[in-house]
Structures are given as C-alpha cells and as structure tokens.
C-alpha cells in the first residue's frame, strides 16, 4: 500500500506554557483532499507549519512524502500557501509567479494561472497594493504554480468573495483530479464538505473526530423549526415516539432527531398547534457538518 502523503504520529508543540498540539495523530492520503478543521487556537496552523518545515515539533514524528519536513528536497515537491502570504511586498504578482515557476521542472503556465484566478489585470501591481482577497489569490497561485505533488493550503478562501472562492474550489478540484495531495485548513464547513475526501476535526491540539464528510454527518435526518425560545422540551418529548431526542440550540431553534418521517412531523405540528406555537421554517434535513463540529467542539468562544 502506498504510504500516506502526510503522516503525523503523537505530535506535540508547545509555546512556553501553552500546549498548542497535544499528541496529535493523523494521516493524509495520497491524491486526496484532507481538511483539518478546528476552532480558533485548536492547533491547526502549528500542525501544518510543522509539516511545512517552518516550525519544529517538541515530540512525535511527522513524515511528508515519506521524509522529515526539514529535508530540502521537499521544497520542489511541496506547495505551501501561508496565512501570512509570504510574498515580498514590493514584488509584482506576475513577476513573482514567473520566478516561482522557474524553480520547478514542470511548472504550470503562470499567465494561465493568473487568468484563472482573475489576477491578469493586477499582474503588474506590487503585492502590497493588492486587496486582501487578491493577495490571497496570489499566495494560492504561488503554492500551486510549481505543480507540486502535495500542497498545503492554510485557510485558502479566508476573505475571498464568492467568485474567487469558487475559482479556488475549482482549482483544488483540478489538483485532486491530477493526483495532487491537498491538505487544507478552513473555518468554512461547506467548503470542507464540498472539497474533502477526508475531514479531521481537532480541538485543544488533539483529533476529536475524523472520517469522510458523509460518515461524519451520518445518514440520520433531523426535523428543525424555529419558534419562541424556551418551549418545554420534556412535554414535546413525551408526545414523540420513544427514542426521539429534542434540543433547543441556539435559543429559538429546535432540532428533533429519531424516526424522522411523516408521523413525527404530524406529531410535532399538532403539538405546536396545541401549545399555540407557530413553528417557522419547519424542515427535514440531514445533520450538517457544522452541527457535528459544534457538538464536538462546543459553542464557547476561543
Ligand atoms: N508563536 C507562538 N507563540 C506563542 N503561542 C503561539 C504561537 N503560535 C501559536 N500559539 C498558540 O498556540 C495555540 C494554537 O495556535 P494555532 O495558530 O496553531 O491555532 P489554529 O487552530 O491555527 O487557530 P486559528 O483558527 O485561529 O488560525 C493558540 O493558543 C495560539 O495562541
């Protein structure tokens, strides 16, 4: 069996008294898109930057394309998109991409890449004069122009408008289709669900769940509605078939799980009518990745 593109075992990273990564184990398969999700401060960037060779681990092992991340030969094989850009401020983005392309044996065409990411008319603009979203796209282009075997994208669509976000998603889809392994971090659950083969949710520097998007969200459906906050869930549950669960999360948003079908729907609407409650936006849906994420990592702000 082919070894993973990235293999992390028992990784620990400390900054003084803060343990940012606390025994994290994960692997990212070859030719797949792996998304690392986690609340602010969960340890995503620390983990990714150790894989990129920018930070040193305090304990554990990390292998990137089978090699230690500090090995110089990885530079030609791995593309990196940093949160902070990493492009010299005075450099024109077209010039920067051409330079990056020259470091690689079989680069993508920089002109076509600029066009694809909507940067053609900004090719001669110094990096520091570009908008945040344009700078973000330049960093993305720089990460992939060398046609890497593996690419790390740290929050690639943060601050991008919907058009640019879609262009980025298409690019990631094409990378995957051409056999490139992609490891990305994101706070956008829809993006992770749409793009990834494998999702790893981390919190407090450890993996709390992982799997395919479908295995994480499950096949179970939920009935959801909005109504005034503080309805008696005990009374509602008493009216529902055994095995059902009901919760209010956040206030005024009700979620019922169990044998979700017409009978349950009828019971809920009848109960609401008897209580004089108007149930708005009543719908039957699958659990979303965001539901799973919040269940696993809580609602507390970090
Ligand atoms: N250079 C540093 N010095 C001190 N503490 C740091 C340093 N870098 C990160 N930390 C701390 O380590 C923890 C993990 O940070 P990290 O940037 O890895 O999280 P993250 O999951 O990428 O967060 P975000 O989603 O906000 O980007 C945080 O508590 C952060 O404050």
Automatic annotation (TrEMBL):
An annotated GO cellular component: plasma membrane
SMART domains named among the record's database cross-references: AAA
Topology term for the membrane: Peripheral membrane protein
Any GO BP annotation: response to antibiotic
Compartments (UniProt record): Cell membrane
Entry-linked Gene3D superfamilies: P-loop containing nucleotide triphosphate hydrolases
Chain ranges of the ABC transporter domain: 6-229
Record carries keyword Electron transport: no
Keywords (A to Z) from UniProt: Antibiotic resistance, ATP-binding, Cell membrane, Membrane, Nucleotide-binding, Translocase, Transport
InterPro entries linked to this entry: AAA+_ATPase (IPR003593), ABC_transporter-like_ATP-bd (IPR003439), ABC_transporter-like_CS (IPR017871), ABC_transporter_ATP-binding (IPR050763), P-loop_NTPase (IPR027417)
Pfam families noted in UniProt: ABC_tran (PF00005)
Principal location: membrane
TM annotation in the entry: none
Protein name: ABC-2 type transport system ATP-binding protein
